[in-house]
Amino acid sequence: VENFLSYVDKKHYDGTIYHRVMGTFMIQGGGFTPDMQKKPTAEPIPNEAGNGLSNKRGTIAMARTNDPHSATAQFFINVQDNMNLDFGGGTNSRNWGYAVFGRVTGGMEVVDEIRFVQTTRKPPFSDVPAEPVIIEQVRVIE
Fold it and tell me: What residue numbers bound the domain in which 82 lies?
């Protein structure tokens, strides 16, 4: 949560896109501009997937590479229950899971609209929305 909020405070997510949309799996964003330029990030954070939270529909988790401790700014929203992404113990990267840190509390219907947009391939990326889906801004509301 602290990592995500630090990016929010820096307005990192403003103007980024959902660059990976897999309608029966998840939508991923927070790392690229509409012209597919990668945004700079802070150092990766340790994987916290063993926090007891599960990758259920509507939850928000940190995206990462195969290295379990590689999460920076990118996140994804689970559009279905993806318990196969939960922490499973052990030492291989798959068992480390993906750390859930939040959930969609309103507007899941918008997430469902995004999950069904037409996608295309923009090498080296697959599953990119044909028309950019832009995150206009992210703010903390108290």
Answer: 2-135
